[in-house]
Amino acid sequence: MSTFTRRALVTAASAATAGAAAGVVATAPAAAAARPSPRSVFAVGEFESTMSPAGTGAANASAFMADVAAADGRQIVVPPGTYTVGQVAVTGETINVRFMPGTLLVPDASLHAVGPAGKWFQATNCDTRLYGLVVDAQNIPEGCWRSDGGELRMYDTRLANLGFLDLAGNSTSLGTFGVTAKGVAELIVDGYVGRDFVGRKDGTFANQAGKVNHLFVYECERVTVRNVTASGGSGEDNDFVHLLDQRATPTMHGTFESCHFAYNGQTRRCMKFQGGNWSLRDIHCYPGPDFVAVGPDTDVGEQNLNCVDFAGSMGGTVRLSGSFIDATGYVVGVSHTIGPLGKVIVDHTTIVGGRRHAIRTNPEAPEVPQDLLTMGFYAAPSENESELRNCVVKGFSRAIVVQGQRNRVVGNTVEDPAELWFQGGSSLARDFLELSGNKVYTRTPGALSLQGRCARVDNFGNLEIYDNTLLRVMRIDPGNVLVPENTEHSTIFIDLLNAAATGFARNNRAPAGTTPVRTGATGVALYQNQGHHLRPLVTTTDVGNITVGEDNLHTHAIPPYNLNTAGAAVRTTFTGTTAPSANPKTLRVYVGPVAVMTKSLTPGIEGAWQAEIVLIATSPGNQRYTVKLLECDTAGSGAPTVAGVATGATALPSNAQIIVKTTAEAVISNDVVAQVGVSESLEGRHFVFT
Q1: What start and end residues bound the annotated signal peptide (predicted)?
Q2: Would you say 680 and 521 are in contact if contact means Cβ atoms under 8 Å apart?
């Protein structure tokens, strides 16, 4: 926080001897006076500004510039009062000004002009320090403070009402800027409040006329911004903060910390980054009291696009952490919209959005009606190496969309998305995606049902999809029973759609009746994914034959795609008993619709039998099998009475269930009884059961 010395030391009425004793110059030279020489006549201490609340804008502008020249870097103190100030331009000086509490600057009417005449304060190659600057621009000038080169440090700044309400935009427009820093070696903004900046709309986006920034930083070096609040305003390119480094190798870098942005329906972005390396901490974005959605059927505003955005193809990194982004009024919460040189990393951040579509007329030409799905985190097809980890993404139509290469989506909580919790890839072939450790909660009835799947992955090679879980939020009904709030979500948790996909998917879980991962005709190795409980398929119910004819005993259905990848294998073991009757008894083993082994069991003994089937995929839709059968008398304690081995090949569709079973044909019911059946991976890992 700024501190101030005693007002008694900066009064024009102080005696010269008292001033000398205190080491303070009481009164600066008049604005029109020549620059004093030598400068050593000014002792170390404060220098009272010669601006006057009663002075004209031109007089106070001249006084400000003369004060800077006369103070020789010493701190100029502006006493309380309202000062009208005209256009100020200072070059090659040290500007060190403290505005005391109760000081307000207002612009001269001459600043009400489009272009350079509308710029207020311009510092070129100056070392600038400003304390306690408070401005009411009264919608007269376009810009407040601009520094080109040198250094700029601003503390406890308050700016309001910049930009014109009555002048039309044109080709000479500069845009509306609170603080502009260009080519500055070090920029520090600590303590800033800005509100109600306006841009002069001309119907064209990405030009200067409607551009509005509280802070615009262009190709500077070290940047530190903290304790910022910005709100209100309007314009066609109304971004509270814009950082731009177009150099071949961007070197601008810095931090934003403890920033609060209260947006309305005219705020295109809260923060826009184009190049440079940035660390963002404790950032809060939320709809302000003046936010109004564009219509009753949507949550987004008229101009709102991406709340926090890395835009353009410049290099660099934006890392957002420990923040809360309420992007309910935006189409996208946090985004990397172009690439490929930059990347966005978001961790330990909550991103909140509306679950309804962005339904509005496109604010940009050709201004046609649009119906867009909202997104919490979006990475465009051309970007690389963006990450979302350990975050909460709440709401949105599509919670997470990553379409570039080498992306990681890890350890996030996704709460109640409307249509898709995840979408990866695009029509372009992409390499590497890690999707792991995410928990998805579905709550609203009908959510995650419109797309035919809860998540989709397109056109990726080298997939790592593991430890993701779909959970249905439960509630207690009047009978004190837990029931799921949403039972209508799609029956596929994660759907892999590209036949060229490679990689693996393991340990992904979903409620009973929901397929955790559907691999399609891909080369993705799929194992240890369970519909509800992580265990092999087990049958322990006794099932016997029924009088004459062939009857099914135990039947196991290997779910689709579990034998789709070459080398994937399943071992199924069936066991049972025979009655000590003299009747003939026949046991058959089936793989698919074909009996691959038929054996006559021994009559007249109380026997035990075991059939083991090993089924191995050689390619999608093709398998080889080995079947072994063993029977012993006296419930397995005697010597084998029947033994057999059969081998062969099948061509069963791997995108459908593959049935393995045993049947029995005998004379009296329960001459042959199946007792236990177990199906498991040969690797000892589990596979998909739904």
Answers
A1: 1-22
A2: no
Q: How far is CA 622 from CA 39, 193, 341, 522, 563, in A?
A: 93, 68, 44, 14, 9
**Separation CA 139–CA 107 (nearest Å):** 9
Determine the Cα–Cα distance for residues 312 and 382; give it in Å rounded to an integer: 11
Task: Provide the whole-model pTM.
Answer: 0.77
Q: CA 240 to CA 242: how far, in whole Å?
A: 7
Q: Which two tokens stand for residue 364?
A: 């940009």
Write phi, then psi, for 661 (nearest 5 degrees): -160, 170
Inter-residue contact 49 to 75 (CB < 8 Å): no
Q: How far apart are CA 522 and CA 459, in angstroms?
A: 10
Measure the CA–CA gap between 223 and 519, rounded to whole angstroms: 47
Q: List the one residue out of 198, 365, 371 whose CA is nearest residue 294.
A: 371
Q: Which two tokens stand for residue 406?
A: 């080498």
Asked whether the beta carbons of 419 and 397 are under 8 A apart, the reply is yes
Q: How far apart are CA 333 and CA 352, in angstroms?
A: 7
Q: 3-state secondary structure string, 88-156?
A: EEEECCEEEEEECCCEEEEECHHHCCCCHHHEEEEEECCEEEEECCEEECCCCCCEEEEEECCEEEEEE
Give the pLDDT score at 21: 36
Q: 42 pLDDT exceeds 50? A: no
Q: Are 251 and 220 in contact (CB under 8 A)?
A: no
C-alpha–C-alpha distance, residues 396 and 488, integer Å: 18
Half-sphere exposure of 396 (CA within 13 A, CB side): 32
Residues 612-636: tens digit of each pLDDT:
999 999 988 999 999 999 999 876 6
Residues 6+ apart with CB under 8 A from 423: 398, 400, 401, 402, 403, 455, 456, 457, 458
Which neighbouring-strand residues pair with 326?
352
What are the backbone angles phi and psi of residue 49, rounded to the nearest 5°?
-65, 145
Task: State the Cα angle at 171 between 168 and 174, rounded to 5°.
Answer: 80
Q: Tell which residue, 517, 624, 610, 522, has the closest CA to residue 569.
A: 624
Query: Taking the CA atoms of the chain, what radius of gyration do you get in angstroms?
Result: 37
Neighbours of 501 (CB within 10 A): 25
Cα Dmax for the chain: 132
Query: What beta strand segments (E) does 380-514 contain?
Result: 387-389, 392-395, 398-402, 407-410, 413-415, 420-424, 430-436, 439-442, 455-457, 460-466, 469-472, 474-476, 482-484, 492-496, 502-506
In sequence order, the β-bridge partners of residue 146 are 122, 180
Output the average pLDDT for the chain: 88
Helix, strand or coil, per DSSP, at residue 334: strand
Q: Which tokens sit at 54?
A: 């009663």
- Amino acid in the structure at residue 399: A
The Cα–Cα gap between 631 and 377 comes to 60
**Ranges 10-19, 78-87, 189-198, 482-491: which has the least confidence:** 10-19
What confidence score (pLDDT) does residue 150 get? 98
CB distance 160 to 133 below 8 Å: no
622/606 Cα distance (integer angstroms) = 39
Sorting pLDDT into bands at 50, 70 and 90, what band is 531? very low
Q: Which strand (E) or helix (H) includes residue 220?
A: none
Q: Would you kindly state where each structural domain of the chain is located, as residue ranges?
A: 426-528, 537-681
173 Cβ partners below 8 Å, 6+ apart? Answer: 114, 115, 142, 200, 202, 207, 208, 209
pLDDT tens track for 322-353: 999 999 999 999 999 987 888 999 999 999 99
Residue 617 CA, distance from chain mean position:
39
